[in-house]
Structure formats: C-alpha cells, structure tokens
Design brief:
single chain; alpha+beta; 6-stranded antiparallel β-barrel; 5-stranded antiparallel β-sheet; 27% strand
Length: 623
C-alpha cells in the first residue's frame, strides 16, 4: 500500500482484486488473515478492523484474534470502540450483520459507526468468528452501504478454507495412490531380492533420490540387502559398511531420522551426520520397517537436490508400512527353514552326545526314548461308543377321528408349552351332524310329549328312547369337535410331524400326526461294542461330544448297562444309559448324536496300539 491518497473507487477496486486473490490463496492462515483484514478495511473505508472469536455454542467473553492496523495510536474514539467489542460481537453473531452508532456527534450527516458481520466458515470449525469495523465521519447511508460490502467480503474465508481442504485432500490422495502403486510393484515379485530392489528403485525414482538402500535386521545387526539401481554390490565396501552403521542408528531408536535434523528434533543423528559428510550427501531420510510393531528393516534415502518435505516423509512411511509385511514374508520364504532347524538341532545335540556320528547317536537316543515311553509309561485309556439323546417322556399325538387337516400351529423343532395348539382337524361336517342330532333330539322329545298327552304310553316310551339315542350321538359329535384341536400334553419340543404340506389331506383315526418330547429329561444312550464292554464294567465316568459341536466336551456318568446285546451292523453292541453332570443344555434335542468315551483305567501305549491285533491273532491262531 502507498501513502498517496487514492480515490475511494480505486481503493475498493484494489480491495476486490485482493479478496479475489485471497479466495485462491495457498498459504498458511497466519499469512491470510492480515491480508484479508487489510483488504476489508480498504473495501469498507474503515479506520480499524478487529477479528474476534469465541468457542461455538458458548456464551463467554470474546477473544481478540487480530487487529488491523496493529499500530493504531490510542484515541478516545478507539477506546470507546474497543469497549463495545463484546456487545457488538454478540449482537452481530445473532443478526449476521449489524450497524450501530458509536456515539452521537455534532452534525446531522456525520457520525461514527460500528459495523459487525459474522464470517462464513466451514461447519467443522469449533469457533465462531465476527469481524468488527470502525467507520468514522460517515453518514448512516454510507455505513449501511459499507456493511453490504463487508457482508460480501465475509464469504472469502470460507472459500479459502475450502481450497485448503481440497489441496489437502488432493495431497492425501496422491500420497495413498503413490503408496498403493508401490505396494503393487512389490507384491508382483516372488523373490525377496527382486522385491527389495523394485521397492528401492521405485522410491528413488518417485522422490528424486540418488540412492535408496534397504537393510535387514539379522541377529542383532543390520545387513545391507539392496541398493537402488545396483543389482550386485560388495558388502565389504566402505560405503556399505557406513550405510549399515547409519541404518543401525535408526533401528536402535525405532524412529524416523532426517539429516539435517528439523528444528526441535530430539533424535540422535551422529552416524547420519558422519555418513553425510563422508559421502557428501546433502539430505538423508531413514525410516524403520515394522512388522507386528517391531522394527525388522531400515530404508535410507539420499538426495542432494533438497530436503525431504513432511508430505514426502509421510509418503515414505506409508510405503514402508504397506511393503514391510510382504518383504518379511518373502525374506522368510527365501530361507530354507528346514535346513536352519536341522543345523540348530545338530549343534545343540553335538554339545550333549559328541560331534562324531551325531545323527546316528541322536536317532538311537530317540528310539530308546520312544521304546521306554511305549512299554513303561501308562496313559489314560478310554473306550469309545456312539450315543443318541433320548427323552424320558415322549408323547405320540394321533388323529381323534377320520377327517381332514385344517390348521398346523407348530412344526418340528418348535418349543411348546402344555395346552398350546399343535394341529386342528376340520369340524364343519361334525358340526352339521351335531345340528342334525340336536334337531332329532328336539323332534323325539316333542313326539314323546304328544304321546304322553294322548296317553299313548308305548309310543311315549319309544320316542323317549329315540331321543336318548339322538342325544348320545350328539354327545359323541360334540366330544369329537372338542378333540379336533390337538394340544401339547406338556412342556417340550416337537420332534416329528411336519404337516404344513398336508393341509386339507385326509387322516384316519389313530394316525400318528406328531411326536412331542420333554427336553428337561434328556439322557444319552451309548452303544458300546461287545469287545470293549468288559473294560467299563465297574467304571462310571466319561465324556461325550456332539457331532454338531465337537469342540465342547460334557462329563457324564454311567447309570445302567443293558444285560443283553443287540445286533447292529454285523456286530453286537450293548446299550449303556448315562446321566450328564449338570443336566441337559437348552440347545439339546432328542435324536442328537455324537461320540462318547468312557474311562477304562491306564494302559501303556504299546498295549493300546497292539491289543486289537493281538486279540485278532489269538482268535485266528487258536485251535
């Protein structure tokens, strides 16, 4: 701004140009707000502009964020203006924009006014902001015109914030896209060295680095694996050894190291400084690669053109995080784990049994230990059997008369309570017959009354007998109508009888329609082969597991063993009734099956593995 006086329209035109530039401003907020307030002061021809803020939704005092110009000399008018900031800010926040006189002044056309306008900010902002201007020596019409211009300028900060957000989002997208592209490059390789070289080459190309190196942590030391644009290198070179020392400094601190270090950095950079001076490198960035939150490798990037920006460091960090797991997996796959395990086992065994014929000695020791365990170490032995859940009480519900299925209220698997409806038969024909029987009863009763009046005793007796016969038939029909709805006899579950597809089909009297079983009295019944039944005689404990949930084991007790065997699948089995400790579970249902094992004492492993064969040979070789 110059000190020469300018026409008002020229000043306003320059202010509008400045506001237009500020909408696309890419700098930081501390540079934006002074320029914005200066442009507003020019646009409104104000003497003083103050920016006040307050936390959103609160009613506390306002905080002066910025004054423009900052070096205004004190005066009585300025003191009165500053004294009314909180009052005007609160009123301007509620009305969006206001004009109030500062104080009365001599003259009808001139005065001092305070203009206040709420700034339009993004909704995510946690503060409310009001811009307050001091306008002196102006009429009310000029003040209101200045308020209009001030209101138009109030949208500039929101455009500035939106542009910043768009630029930040674009930078984030570029960062993620770059890291994902690098991850694709690494994932395409099947060998560790190829993947590591592609990783380093891609980083060096995208970040304009002269050299990017990867070091891997092995037995407490970092070993250089690859160098960008270099397929083969000698690890004994001074550069390679210096790089490994530099990488160890980063992995020891498990932190990112930049050289030259940024202001306020607390990491140790002694080895980086030494390496940078020795190799004449202007800028270095080292980042550890972590797997399961533990550092396993280090990336060191070298560049002479310029320092690494915070965005580039974030891109490098994201790329390392995405590629670390893949590189670690390839590193492990390239090493023959079996050979390493065998070598480690041989070294440990050599310390115990000597360095000569180690494998033969180790095999002999292993065979001896196995034989001792087989013949002399008893282990628990259990007899297996298949079980099925049964209920203590199961009711077969039959059709009470010949008829047709009308409604079905339950299906297999439904829990029912005593007295709840299960299925009903059609009663329309029965109701018609009952109505006919009622009519016959009434007719015969009237005939009997007529015979009595006519003193025809024989006819009266006949009519009374016919009325009783019709009444008996009516009682039977009413009983059948009452029994047409079949109800649950007790609390339980429907285990059989899906009648939904049989609606309207005929049924005969005594046909089984449904089966209902109680589930609070379930018990397992096991089938044990006759060749093993003698092992559990006198035993009482065991476990069972359902086929549907084999991971859950339930303890059980043997209650009774049937005295007679039953033939099944060309073998004889004995039925063993058991009781479950703790009672049945709520999800158990009759008919569920599984495997049970009964404790049969302790036997050696050799006996367990061979007793079947020994018994077979005894039967075959017996004469």
């Amino acid at each position: 701004m110059t000190n020469e006086p300018q026409a008002p329209h020229q000043s306003r035109w320059r202010a509008l140009e400045e506001l237009d530039q500020l909408r696309q401003f890419a700098g930081v907020p501390k540079d934006f707000w002074p320029r914005f307030l200066a442009a507003v002061m020019q646009l409104a021809l104000a003497d003083k502009v103050v920016l006040v803020v307050r936390a959103s939704g609160q009613s506390g005092p306002w905080r002066r964020l910025l004054d423009w110009p900052a070096d205004t000399p004190p005066s009585q008018m300025l003191t009165a203006f500053l004294a009314r900031l909180d009052e005007v800010a609160a009123e301007g926040l509620g009305q969006e924009a206001i004009v109030v006189p500062l104080a009365p002044k001599d003259g009808a056309a001139a005065g001092n006014f305070i203009l206040a306008s709420r700034l339009a900010l993004q909704r995510a902002q946690p503060e409310e902001c009001v811009m307050i201007c001091l306008l002196s020596e102006a009429g009310e019409s000029e003040a209101r015109e200045a308020l209009v211009r001030l209101r138009l300028a109030a949208w500039t900060p929101e455009f500035y914030q939106m542009n910043l957000a768009i630029r930040q989002a674009k930078a984030d997208v570029e960062k993620f896209a770059s890291a994902l592209d690098l991850s694709v490059v690494v994932s395409a390789e099947k060998r560790f060295l190829a993947a590591a070289l592609a990783f380093c080459n891609t980083l060096a190309t995208r970040h304009n680095c002269e050299r990017v190196s990867l070091g891997w942590l092995e037995r407490g030391y970092v070993r250089l694996q690859t160098i960008s644009r270099t397929e083969k290198f000698d690890r004994q070179m001074a550069v390679a050894q210096a790089l490994e020392v530099t990488m160890e400094e980063a992995i020891d601190q498990d932190d990112e190291i930049l050289w030259p270090p940024p202001e306020g950095s607390s990491v140790v950079t002694r080895d980086h400084e030494k390496y940078a001076k020795g190799q004449e490198v202007g800028h270095i960035c080292s980042l550890p690669l972590r797997v399961d939150h533990k550092p396993v490798a280090v990336i060191t990037a070298e560049r002479r053109s310029g320092p690494f920006s915070p965005l580039e460091v974030q891109q490098l960090r994201l790329a390392c995080d995405l590629a670390a797991t893949r590189l670690a997996d390839l590193k492990q796959q390239d090493c023959w784990v079996g050979a390493r395990w065998a070598a480690a086992t041989r070294q440990r065994a050599a310390k115990l049994i000597g360095p000569e014929h180690t494998w033969a000695k180790l095999l002999a020791v292993g065979v001896t230990a196995a034989l001792v365990v087989l013949f002399f170490v008893p282990v628990p032995y259990r007899v297996e059997g298949n079980f099925v859940l049964h209920s203590e009480k199961m009711e077969h519900l039959t059709a009470p008369f010949d008829g047709y299925i009308d409604q079905v209220f339950a299906r297999p698997g439904d829990r029912v309570t005593a007295g709840s409806k299960l299925v009903s038969l059609k009663t329309s024909e029965l109701e018609l017959e009952a109505a006919s029987a009622v009519a016959e009863v009434n007719r015969y009763q009237r005939e009997a009354e007529k015979a009595r009046a006519a003193k025809a005793l024989a006819d009266m007796r006949v009519d009374q007998a016919l009325a009783q016969e019709a009444q008996a038939r009516l009682d039977v029909l009413r009983y059948e109508i009452a029994e047409a709805t079949i109800k649950a006899p007790f609390d339980g579950v429907v285990v059989e009888g899906d009648l939904r597809d049989r609606l309207g089909t005929p049924v005969k009297r005594a046909d089984v329609l449904m089966r209902v079983a109680r589930i609070d009295t379930l018990y397992p019944e096991a089938e044990v082969n006759e060749r093993d039944i003698h092992e559990i005689l006198g035993r009482t404990t065991g476990q069972m597991a359902f086929l549907s949930q084999p991971q859950n084991k339930y303890p059980l007790r043997i209650t009774t063993v049937e005295q007679a065997a039953l033939p099944k699948n060309q073998e004889n089995v004995f039925l063993v009734r058991c009781a479950v400790d703790g009672g049945p579970q709520s999800w158990w249902r009759p008919g569920m099956s599984g495997l049970c094992k009964f404790d049969a004492g302790r036997r050696t492993l050799f006996w367990i593995l061979t007793h079947r064969t020994v018994d077979f040979l005894r039967m075959k070789l017996w004469w």
